[in-house]
Amino acid sequence: MPPSPATRRTRPSRPLGRLSPAERRLWDAYPTGAWVDLRSGDPAADDPAGGAAWGPERTIRAEVLTALLLGARETEPGATPGLRLAGARVTGDLDLSDATVETKLHLLNCHLSGVIDLSDANTRGVRFRGCDLGRVRAARSTVDGLLEFDGSSLRGLRLDNAHVTGQLRLSRSQVGPPREGDRTGAPMQDVRKPYSEAERRERGLDDGHRWAVWAGGLVVDGGAFLRGLRAAGGLRMVGAKFHGGLYLQEASITAAELAAGDAAAGPSAGASAAAGVPAAGVYAVYADFLEASAAEFSAGFTAAGTVRLRGARINGVLSFDKAALKASDRSLHLSHMQVDELILRPSEVEGEVNLSYSRIGVLMDRLSSYPDHVHLNGLTYEALRGSWSVAQRLSWLCRDPGGYRPQPYEQLATWYRRIGHEPDARRVLLAKQRERRGTLRSTGRFWGRLLDLAVGYGYRPWLAGLWAVVLLAAGTTVFSAVPPMKIDPDEVRHFNAFVYTLDLLVPVSVFEQRGAWEPVGWTRWLAWTLVASGWILATALIAGAARVLRPSNAP
Questions:
Q1: Where does the record place the region Disordered (predicted)?
Q2: What is the DSSP letter of 33?
Q3: Which residues contact 473 (CB under 8 A, 6 or more apart)?
Q4: Residue 1 pLDDT > 50, yes or no?
């Protein structure tokens, strides 16, 4: 007689052989989702890091877990099935790729040395708490619920284009890059168009072992909690979306080159290398075009390598408060980014910072937050927060390694005007002209210095009045002591040294003193100097006024 459908459902896809006592306990508990606890009660003996030495009484084959999750065991009416296992040594690879799993998987303090493959699977909640795991592959998977690795150690986590409808949890986890032996074989290729070296790198086929977490295109509807994570290798999250926020407080990320020498010793070995500085172009976090409601790289976050968020969109706070950032070339790459509020107050920063062409709502920072090189060209912001003087802000603008750029000065002046600090805005624009002068030819630099000396490029018009007072006083004193000679002796005129000096200073004679009196001796040089100075002051005032009154959008 052929077996009934119910009987067929209870049979695994391939013979499991005789079940061990531990496997039988798990098999019997699955229909009701009851816990199977194989721990001894001794914390030292139950540490999954030493799980490879556990005996057969705590050993379960991975194929038994696979068979249960794929429906090999008959469920019981009125009960919710589930696989809940604690303190077990799971041997072999746990292969659920392409599967649809309707029950939850929850492992606690277990040791799994093989590969856990959830690629292209559709699952309910998947939890590995306090476990010692091999490589975890979950590319293109959908987890309807919680995906958790809290307190676990992993040899590489792959989540590219995965979708987690609940939370992603990696708090207090230790993640290292996968080993060569953890790979599942070369991918099938089209003989007409084999992968190029660039395509292999893009797909993670050649250098995937350099990344602790490969999660490009990952979507997490809940929060992603990576607090206290220790990663001996970079986090690659290009285009990832964290609708509930990304939280890495107290996490320590060591870039691949620093971690590579210690990766074979275990996931936690690279943490000791964090005190070093990686070579140029090595990323601790590579997350271009990341989207999140908030992102916390703060409260003790440490990165040895570049943190790159180019083109990211943060609809809330992006914080680097009390973070430690180290890189030999660039510690932070935040260009072309949009963020509501950026808190840039790390406790330590080594390596340049790039904020070019980013749009920031509120920028909260301090002078010590920045290294010697800061890229600021194209940066716009709505508000600045922090205890900064105008001189400090100007020194901030001068740290751009690209040299003089007009936009950062104009942006800072615009902000000062917006908050009603017009004198500070004029001071910034004056500094802009002085920096610009260094980019001009010799004639332009000469005229610039003259404008600066005379009227402060129009932003200090009172300088012209000061010069006029000085020249009037000098001319009045000299011409009172050495009066000029009357040109027409028959004309009746009364000489006044002050009026005569003023008439010389004014470009167009107003008091008709020039034509009536002729300076004598060396005073001719003073008279010529006064005439030239009058023209220079008038020209400088006109040029400065034109510069100040020019519309802000004028070229």
A1: 1-21, 168-202
A2: T
A3: none
A4: no
Nearest CA to 337 among 315, 311, 361, 317? Answer: 311
- The first and second tokens of residue 269, run together, are 């070995």
pLDDT, tens digit, for every residue of 231-255?
Answer: 999 999 999 999 999 999 999 999 8
Residue 233, CB-side half-sphere exposure with 13 Å CA sphere: 29
Q: What is the pLDDT of residue 462?
A: 57
Q: What is the pLDDT of residues 412-456, one digit of tens each?
A: 999 998 998 988 888 888 888 777 777 778 776 666 665 665 555
Q: Mean of the pLDDT values across residues 3-8? A: 36
Question: Is residue 298 helix, strand or coil?
Answer: coil
pLDDT, position 3? 42
The pLDDT, as a whole number, for residue 77 is: 86
DSSP 207: S
pLDDT at residue 193, rounded to an integer: 72
Q: Which two tokens stand for residue 216?
A: 């490009």
Instruction: Kindly calculate the radius of gyration of the chain based on its CA atoms and give it in whole angstroms.
Output: 37
Query: CB–CB of 358/335 below 8 Å?
Result: yes
The pTM for the full model equals 0.78
Confidence of residue 30 (pLDDT cuts 50, 70, 90): very high
Encoded tokens for 103: 């029950």
Looking at residue 299, its amino acid is: A
Strand partners, 302: 252, 324
Query: Contact at 8 Å (CB) between 362 and 344?
Result: no
Taking the C-alpha atoms of residue 191 and residue 345, their distance in angstroms, rounded to an integer, is 52
Burial of 203 (0-12, 13-18, 19+ CB in 10 A): middle
* Of 106, 112, 141, the residue nearest 126 (C-alpha): 106
Q: How many CB atoms lie within 10 A of CB 317?
A: 21
pLDDT bucket at 133, cuts 50 / 70 / 90: very high
The rounded distance, in Å, linking the Cα atoms of 191 and 217 is: 28
468, 471, 473, 477 alpha-carbon torsion, rounded to 10°? -160
* Higher pLDDT among residues 269 and 479, named by residue: 479
Query: Are the CB atoms for 57 and 23 separated by under 8 Å?
Result: no
What is the DSSP secondary-structure string of 498-533? HHHHHHHHSSS-SSS-TTTEE--TTHHHHHHHHHHH
Rounded Cα gap, residues 68 and 479, in angstroms: 111
Strand partners, 437: none
Inter-residue contact 310 to 286 (CB < 8 Å): no
CA–CA dist 555, 348 (Å, integer): 40
Alpha carbon 391 to its chain centroid, in Å, reads 26
Query: Residue 56 region, left (φ>0) first, then alpha (ψ -120 to 50), else beta?
Result: alpha
Q: Rounded mean pLDDT of the chain?
A: 83
Q: How many CB atoms lie within 10 A of CB 187?
A: 10
Q: Which amino acid is at 95?
A: D
Q: Which helix (H) or strand (E) holds 476?
A: helix 462-481
Whether 339 contacts 360, CB under 8 Å = yes
Tokens in use for 549? 């009154």
Rounded Cα gap, residues 114 and 213, in angstroms: 18
pLDDT digits (tens, 9 = 90+) for 35-81: 999 999 999 999 999 999 999 999 999 999 999 999 888 888 888 99
Q: Are 59 and 20 in contact (CB under 8 A)?
A: yes
